[in-house]
Amino acid sequence: MQGEHWYWRRIRPTEQACAARIGTRTADLRQESTAGLQGEDGRTGPWTEGVEMVRSGVATLVKAGLTGGLLTVAGFAFLAPAAHADGWVTWKNARTGGYMDNYQGRTGNGNPIIHWPGNRGNNQKWWSATHSDGSKAYINAGSNKALDGDARYCFAPMVQWDWHAQANQRWWRHTVQGGYMLQRAQGCSGYRPLVISVTDTSRGSQLYTQEQRTINNSAEPQQRWK
Predict the structure, then answer these.
(1) Which residues contact 138 (CB under 8 A, 6 or more apart)?
(2) pLDDT tens digits, 11-43
(3) What are the pLDDT digits (tens) for 129-179?
(4) What residues does the Ricin B lectin domain cover (predicted)?
(5) How far is CA 189 from CA 134, 154, 220, in A?
(6) Domains identified in the chain and CATH numbers
(7) pTM of the predicted protein model
(8) Are 23 and 144 within 8 A, CB to CB?
(9) Cβ–Cβ < 8 Å for 179, 94
Protein backbone atom coordinates (compact mmCIF):
# COMPACT_ATOMS: atom_id res chain seq x y z
CA MET A 1 0.00 0.00 0.00
CA GLN A 2 3.05 2.26 -0.02
CA GLY A 3 2.44 5.43 -2.00
CA GLU A 4 -1.33 5.06 -1.90
CA HIS A 5 -3.80 6.91 0.30
CA TRP A 6 -6.37 4.88 2.20
CA TYR A 7 -9.16 5.99 4.49
CA TRP A 8 -10.96 3.90 7.08
CA ARG A 9 -14.06 4.16 9.14
CA ARG A 10 -15.45 2.00 11.92
CA ILE A 11 -19.13 1.06 11.70
CA ARG A 12 -21.53 -0.79 13.94
CA PRO A 13 -21.97 -4.47 12.98
CA THR A 14 -25.66 -3.94 12.25
CA GLU A 15 -24.68 -1.36 9.66
CA GLN A 16 -22.15 -3.45 7.79
CA ALA A 17 -24.75 -4.26 5.17
CA CYS A 18 -25.05 -0.52 4.50
CA ALA A 19 -21.32 -0.14 3.98
CA ALA A 20 -21.22 -1.71 0.54
CA ARG A 21 -19.09 -0.04 -2.07
CA ILE A 22 -20.43 2.23 -4.80
CA GLY A 23 -18.34 2.53 -7.93
CA THR A 24 -16.30 0.34 -10.22
CA ARG A 25 -13.07 -1.51 -9.41
CA THR A 26 -14.05 -4.09 -6.76
CA ALA A 27 -10.41 -4.97 -6.16
CA ASP A 28 -9.77 -1.47 -4.87
CA LEU A 29 -12.12 -1.86 -1.92
CA ARG A 30 -10.52 -4.20 0.61
CA GLN A 31 -6.95 -5.03 1.56
CA GLU A 32 -6.14 -7.89 3.93
CA SER A 33 -3.68 -5.95 6.02
CA THR A 34 -3.07 -5.25 9.67
CA ALA A 35 -0.86 -2.25 9.05
CA GLY A 36 -1.84 0.94 10.85
CA LEU A 37 -3.74 3.33 8.60
CA GLN A 38 -4.27 7.02 9.03
CA GLY A 39 -7.94 7.94 9.27
CA GLU A 40 -9.46 11.21 8.13
CA ASP A 41 -10.23 11.98 11.75
CA GLY A 42 -6.54 11.71 12.65
CA ARG A 43 -6.71 8.28 14.26
CA THR A 44 -4.94 5.15 13.07
CA GLY A 45 -6.19 1.60 13.11
CA PRO A 46 -5.76 -1.84 11.53
CA TRP A 47 -8.00 -3.56 9.01
CA THR A 48 -10.59 -5.30 11.18
CA GLU A 49 -14.17 -6.45 10.87
CA GLY A 50 -16.49 -3.48 10.80
CA VAL A 51 -14.02 -1.15 9.11
CA GLU A 52 -14.52 0.05 5.54
CA MET A 53 -11.46 1.15 3.56
CA VAL A 54 -11.23 2.54 0.07
CA ARG A 55 -8.38 3.89 -1.98
CA SER A 56 -8.72 7.56 -2.78
CA GLY A 57 -8.93 8.43 -6.46
CA VAL A 58 -11.23 8.89 -9.40
CA ALA A 59 -14.33 6.66 -9.59
CA THR A 60 -13.95 5.28 -6.08
CA LEU A 61 -16.82 5.80 -3.65
CA VAL A 62 -18.01 4.12 -0.50
CA LYS A 63 -21.13 4.17 1.62
CA ALA A 64 -19.35 4.85 4.83
CA GLY A 65 -21.96 3.61 7.29
CA LEU A 66 -24.35 5.70 9.34
CA THR A 67 -22.45 6.44 12.51
CA GLY A 68 -21.64 10.12 12.03
CA GLY A 69 -18.26 11.75 11.66
CA LEU A 70 -16.61 12.72 8.41
CA LEU A 71 -14.91 10.69 5.72
CA THR A 72 -13.57 12.16 2.50
CA VAL A 73 -13.14 9.92 -0.53
CA ALA A 74 -12.48 10.95 -4.12
CA GLY A 75 -13.63 14.53 -3.59
CA PHE A 76 -16.73 13.64 -1.57
CA ALA A 77 -17.44 14.43 2.07
CA PHE A 78 -19.62 11.75 3.63
CA LEU A 79 -21.47 13.08 6.66
CA ALA A 80 -23.81 11.68 9.27
CA PRO A 81 -27.32 11.36 7.83
CA ALA A 82 -30.01 13.94 8.47
CA ALA A 83 -33.14 15.01 6.61
CA HIS A 84 -31.94 15.40 3.03
CA ALA A 85 -28.36 15.68 4.18
CA ASP A 86 -25.79 13.03 3.33
CA GLY A 87 -27.05 9.49 3.78
CA TRP A 88 -30.03 7.64 2.33
CA VAL A 89 -32.73 9.83 0.81
CA THR A 90 -35.91 9.44 -1.20
CA TRP A 91 -37.44 12.15 -3.37
CA LYS A 92 -41.22 12.56 -3.54
CA ASN A 93 -42.74 14.91 -6.10
CA ALA A 94 -45.12 17.55 -4.75
CA ARG A 95 -47.37 17.42 -7.82
CA THR A 96 -47.90 13.68 -8.30
CA GLY A 97 -46.83 12.17 -4.98
CA GLY A 98 -44.65 9.81 -7.01
CA TYR A 99 -41.12 8.97 -5.97
CA MET A 100 -37.97 9.32 -8.03
CA ASP A 101 -37.50 5.74 -9.21
CA ASN A 102 -34.95 3.77 -11.22
CA TYR A 103 -37.27 2.04 -13.70
CA GLN A 104 -37.83 -1.62 -12.73
CA GLY A 105 -34.60 -1.57 -10.73
CA ARG A 106 -32.51 -2.25 -13.81
CA THR A 107 -28.75 -1.86 -13.55
CA GLY A 108 -27.72 -0.75 -17.03
CA ASN A 109 -26.44 2.64 -18.08
CA GLY A 110 -29.16 4.84 -19.56
CA ASN A 111 -32.04 3.25 -17.66
CA PRO A 112 -34.83 5.85 -17.27
CA ILE A 113 -35.55 7.62 -14.00
CA ILE A 114 -39.32 7.87 -13.55
CA HIS A 115 -41.86 8.88 -10.92
CA TRP A 116 -43.72 6.00 -9.28
CA PRO A 117 -45.81 5.44 -6.14
CA GLY A 118 -43.73 4.76 -3.04
CA ASN A 119 -42.74 1.13 -2.57
CA ARG A 120 -39.75 1.34 -0.20
CA GLY A 121 -37.64 -0.49 -2.77
CA ASN A 122 -33.97 0.13 -3.42
CA ASN A 123 -34.92 1.54 -6.81
CA GLN A 124 -36.36 4.55 -4.91
CA LYS A 125 -33.48 5.00 -2.46
CA TRP A 126 -30.55 7.25 -3.22
CA TRP A 127 -27.25 7.70 -1.45
CA SER A 128 -26.52 11.40 -1.16
CA ALA A 129 -22.90 12.54 -1.17
CA THR A 130 -21.44 16.03 -1.26
CA HIS A 131 -18.75 17.15 -3.71
CA SER A 132 -16.07 19.52 -2.46
CA ASP A 133 -17.88 22.42 -4.19
CA GLY A 134 -21.09 21.70 -2.27
CA SER A 135 -23.01 20.09 -5.12
CA LYS A 136 -24.56 16.66 -4.62
CA ALA A 137 -24.31 13.25 -6.22
CA TYR A 138 -27.17 10.77 -5.86
CA ILE A 139 -26.36 7.08 -6.24
CA ASN A 140 -29.16 4.55 -6.60
CA ALA A 141 -29.24 1.88 -3.91
CA GLY A 142 -30.25 -0.89 -6.26
CA SER A 143 -27.97 -0.26 -9.21
CA ASN A 144 -25.04 1.74 -7.77
CA LYS A 145 -25.44 4.14 -10.71
CA ALA A 146 -25.52 7.92 -10.47
CA LEU A 147 -28.50 10.17 -11.16
CA ASP A 148 -27.66 11.71 -14.54
CA GLY A 149 -29.21 14.51 -16.60
CA ASP A 150 -28.06 13.59 -20.10
CA ALA A 151 -25.28 16.05 -20.98
CA ARG A 152 -26.29 16.18 -24.66
CA TYR A 153 -29.48 18.09 -23.96
CA CYS A 154 -30.68 21.19 -22.14
CA PHE A 155 -34.07 19.62 -21.49
CA ALA A 156 -32.56 16.28 -20.66
CA PRO A 157 -34.18 12.93 -19.95
CA MET A 158 -33.20 11.70 -16.51
CA VAL A 159 -31.26 8.43 -16.55
CA GLN A 160 -28.76 6.54 -14.44
CA TRP A 161 -25.13 6.17 -15.45
CA ASP A 162 -21.79 5.07 -14.06
CA TRP A 163 -20.54 7.81 -11.78
CA HIS A 164 -18.00 10.11 -13.44
CA ALA A 165 -18.50 13.35 -11.44
CA GLN A 166 -19.11 15.58 -14.46
CA ALA A 167 -21.53 18.51 -14.22
CA ASN A 168 -24.51 16.55 -15.56
CA GLN A 169 -24.25 14.27 -12.51
CA ARG A 170 -23.85 17.10 -10.01
CA TRP A 171 -26.94 18.63 -8.43
CA TRP A 172 -27.52 21.80 -6.46
CA ARG A 173 -30.20 21.26 -3.83
CA HIS A 174 -32.11 24.51 -3.27
CA THR A 175 -34.48 24.90 -0.33
CA VAL A 176 -37.86 26.33 -1.33
CA GLN A 177 -41.15 26.62 0.50
CA GLY A 178 -42.48 23.10 0.91
CA GLY A 179 -39.42 21.21 -0.26
CA TYR A 180 -36.41 21.39 -2.56
CA MET A 181 -35.47 22.00 -6.16
CA LEU A 182 -32.70 19.87 -7.67
CA GLN A 183 -30.71 21.91 -10.19
CA ARG A 184 -28.30 20.32 -12.65
CA ALA A 185 -24.86 21.87 -12.28
CA GLN A 186 -24.48 21.82 -16.05
CA GLY A 187 -26.44 24.76 -17.37
CA CYS A 188 -27.43 25.85 -20.88
CA SER A 189 -26.66 29.25 -22.35
CA GLY A 190 -29.75 31.42 -22.67
CA TYR A 191 -31.86 29.39 -20.27
CA ARG A 192 -32.71 29.71 -16.62
CA PRO A 193 -31.28 27.04 -14.29
CA LEU A 194 -32.39 23.53 -15.20
CA VAL A 195 -34.10 21.50 -12.50
CA ILE A 196 -35.54 17.98 -12.28
CA SER A 197 -39.20 18.11 -13.25
CA VAL A 198 -42.27 15.97 -13.84
CA THR A 199 -43.30 16.81 -17.40
CA ASP A 200 -46.00 14.12 -17.68
CA THR A 201 -48.09 13.35 -14.61
CA SER A 202 -48.94 9.83 -15.82
CA ARG A 203 -47.60 7.21 -13.44
CA GLY A 204 -44.29 5.82 -14.66
CA SER A 205 -43.37 8.76 -16.91
CA GLN A 206 -39.72 9.65 -17.26
CA LEU A 207 -38.37 12.73 -15.49
CA TYR A 208 -36.67 15.57 -17.37
CA THR A 209 -34.72 18.71 -16.62
CA GLN A 210 -36.66 21.90 -17.33
CA GLU A 211 -36.16 25.59 -16.76
CA GLN A 212 -36.74 26.60 -13.17
CA ARG A 213 -40.14 28.16 -12.52
CA THR A 214 -41.32 29.68 -9.26
CA ILE A 215 -44.65 30.71 -7.78
CA ASN A 216 -44.75 32.93 -4.68
CA ASN A 217 -41.11 32.18 -3.84
CA SER A 218 -41.62 28.43 -4.15
CA ALA A 219 -41.03 25.98 -6.97
CA GLU A 220 -43.94 24.88 -9.08
CA PRO A 221 -45.20 21.56 -7.69
CA GLN A 222 -43.86 19.48 -10.57
CA GLN A 223 -40.37 20.83 -9.79
CA ARG A 224 -40.59 20.52 -6.03
CA TRP A 225 -39.33 17.47 -4.16
CA LYS A 226 -39.51 16.50 -0.53
Answers:
(1) 89, 126, 127, 128, 146, 147, 171
(2) 333 333 333 333 322 222 222 222 332 333 333
(3) 999 899 999 999 999 999 999 999 999 999 999 999 999 999 999 999 999
(4) 85-148
(5) 22, 9, 22
(6) 6-79 (no CATH), 89-223 (2.80.10.50)
(7) 0.66
(8) yes
(9) yes
